[in-house]
Amino acid sequence: MKRTALILMLGFNLIYFGCSNETALEMPDENEETPDCTPQFPEMDVTYDNYVKGIVDKYCISCHYAGNSPGPGNFTSYSGVAAYSDFFATRVIGDNADMPQGNAPLPQAVRDSLNVWIQNCAPKN
Ligand code: HEC
Hints:
Largest sheet: none
Strand content: under 5%
Mean pLDDT: 84
Number of domains: 1
Order of helices and strands: HHHHH
Bound molecules: heme C
């Protein structure tokens, strides 16, 4: 069940990325079981381009580079990372985060910044 919800949210993110322009948001299609995303910290400018890419390049792409990499996905591009953003809260940011696998958890300040990015709907720039 939980997995299904996450996958649905994932589909939502792929379709609705770049939701910073709130006036452009439309009522969700009734057939879409996906919630809207409203940036929670609009004053904080944490984007993929200005922050997240550097973190992921440093800590994650050694295992998440697609092909037959140990970790799933391809985190070398924005869309590749964004596709997994729904998993960040539990796997990367939260107290029980286990990524980067086999390494120390990310510093708290980094996790806080990643959390802002996720809460702001994972903007690219
Ligand atoms: C040493 C290798 C390694 C590193 C480094 C690593 N990962 Fe992973 N990651 C894995 C493997 C293997 C899996 C799949 C098994 C699992 O889910 O535990 C995984 C799974 C995940 C998942 C869950 C994907 C899903 O479909 O459920 C996320 C999200 C994730 N990693 C994010 C990250 C992030 C972000 C970083 C960097 C901060 C990172 N990983 C660093 C190996 C790694």
